[in-house]
Amino acid sequence: MGFSVVIAYIILSISFLIVFATVLDSYMNILNLNYILASEEEDESFTILDCYNITPCSPCNFSVILKNTGSKTIDLNYLTVVFDGLIYNYVKNSTYLFPLENESIIVMNVTPSNLRLRIVTKTGSSAFSNCRIS
C-alpha cells in the first residue's frame, strides 16, 4: 500500500509541474505580446503644432498643422477629427505623414464654441489642442 501511494504522489507531482510550466509559458507569451503592442503604439505619436481659422466664422474652416514625432508613418486617410465632442470632415494635401515631417489638414464647417480639438489615428494615438480664431 505504501509503494502505490508514493508512485501516485510522484505521478501527480510531475503532472502538476507540467501543467504549471505550460501555464507559465503561456503567461510569459501574453506578457511579451502586450509589450510588443505597447511599444508599437508608442512609436506612432504626433502633435498639433497650430490650429487657426482660415475663413470667417459662421461656420469656420480651420487649418491644423500636424507633426509626426514618432517613428511610424501615419495614414492621414484614417484620422478622426473632433472639435468640442463633434466629429468633422477634413481635407488633406497628402496621404501620409512621415516621421519628423509636418502636414496640414483643413477641417471643414466647424461651428466655434470652446474650440477644443482632438485628433485620433486608426491605432488610437491622439493629440489635443486649443484652436484660435484669428
Could you characterize what this model shows?
It is a single chain. The chain has 134 residues and is α+β, with helices and mostly antiparallel strands. The chain is 31% helix and 37% strand. Strands 1-2-8-6 form a four-stranded antiparallel β-sheet, with no helix packed on it. Strand 4 (80-83) and strand 5 form a beta hairpin. The chain is rod-shaped. The model has no long low-confidence stretch (mean pLDDT 85).
Summarize the structure.
The chain has 134 residues and is of the alpha+beta class.
Topology:
Layout: H1 2-43, E1 46-53, E2 60-68, E3 74-75, E4 80-83, E5 86-88, E6 90-92, E7 96-97, E8 102-110, E9 116-120, E10 126-130
Antiparallel strand pairs: 1-2, 2-8, 3-7, 4-5, 4-9, 6-8, 9-10
According to CATH, the fold-level topology of the largest domain is Immunoglobulin-like
- What is the chains' assembly state? single chain
Largest sheet descriptor? 4 strands, antiparallel
Low-confidence stretches: none
Calculate Rg over CA atoms.
26 Å
Strand content: 35-45%
Kindly state the mean pLDDT as a whole number?
85
Helix content: 25-40%
Number of strands: 10
CATH homologous superfamily label of the largest domain: Immunoglobulins
Number of helices: 1
Distance between the termini: 93 Å
Strand order of the largest sheet: 1-2-8-6
Structural class: alpha+beta
Helix/strand order, N-terminal first:
HEEEEEEEEEE
Query: Mind telling me the CATH class of the largest domain?
Result: Mainly Beta
| General shape | rod-shaped
Q: Tell me what the CATH architecture of the largest domain is.
A: Sandwich
Total of domains: 2
